[in-house]
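Lab meeting notes turned into a lecture example. A postdoc, R.K., suggested we walk through two folding results consecutively so the class can see how the record format repeats. The first protein's sequence and structure tokens come next.
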Amino acid sequence: MWKEGGVLRHSLFNHSRFNCENLQKVPRLIREHRPGQIVNTLRFAYHALRGFPVTRLPYDPNWLVLLITARCNLHCYMCSFRNPQCPIPIRSSFQDMPLDLFGQILDTYPRAIVVELSGGEPLIHPRIFEMIHLAHARRMKVHIPSNGTLLAGKMEALLQAPVEILNVSFYGTDAASFAQMTGADGALFDVVVQGVAELARRRRAGGYPRRLRTSFVCSKDNLHLVPDFIRLSEKMGVDDVKLRNLRFHDIPGLPESTSLSADDPEVEEFLEDLRRQHFRIPVFLPRLPRQDDQRRCDHPFRLVAIDGDGFIGPCCVKAAKRCWGNLLEQANLWNGPAMLQARRVQTDPNSPLPPICRYCEERIPERPRLGG
């Protein structure tokens, strides 16, 4: 599975997003993106098919995760951003991303095909809709993860904004479970449900957002809520549901055993029960690592995260922070020392996985799907 010198062959190749199924998307890639973006994506695909044999990459990132705000109106217990018990909130200090920095990032990486506007709660950012239109004008697909609490006040703008995927993360299936998971007023739960349902109802055929998705972070503590969540999502009229595995972040009161594992009979029994049920919309199941799983991740080979102060990070989970470098101060950070080291960790089987990687479902190659 490994070549000498730690050059990855099959393990990372099997995990790459650019697999045979993605090859079927090449016509859409050619139709919807600029020549430079097309060539860059195909270069990424070529290196993915070879198992990423080098760490200094001859292509640019094709996915930008832009942390446009650190602010959020919830305090979710599983979130290292805003959990009040977390001793070191890992991304709580950067400013809202200025529009000129956003433009500079797009100028630096014009060959990216996806821009994820994240946070914090990205809909808090006062200029998010300008950002959406700027990225769309460059033929970049815009993805937005949101907690959904602000949808009602931004409904008209959302229906006009060229957003490819709007993912509304749910925390609970009723007011009580929502309040328990978020530390917020349980009345906000109905606000989110009504906002999603109205957006789904008013969205015209072929309109925006192109895909309206709901997601739910699964843990050993809330598996019993999942069927109700899926049924609720069906009633709201969304396109699909994504169930995510809880990422263990060493947060007080959140033990490792809370995350789902493929070695756990209780988890497997739960998934088997879900498979026996019929759902009208697609349901994407959590990716489940095994305790001895050492598979590596392709994130440092395909994306870069950048926060509102210009600091970068090698994936969507690890913090964008000073140790990785700053876009405003250094050139070619995509192939800078920190990113090269992050890639070496992912290609060297003798290099232990960081704890935050061991519990990250992004290492698992495929996400099983039900229904639809």
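The second example is placed directly after the first for contrast:
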Amino acid sequence: MARKNELTHLDKEGRARMVDVSGKESTVRVARAEAFVVMSAETVRLLREKALPKGDPFEVARIAGI
């Protein structure tokens, strides 16, 4: 059991970890974020064509959000 001021989603090394929240009551929450990204025209082209060497970063972000 976590102490009052202890972050439950971090392990002893400070790395993020999953926690069981099945016992928590459901609540409605809203999160908003905004970003400004500067990149070259070539990078924009590769993003649009889904041709980046490490894969589609939008799919990675989508999975991270889930």
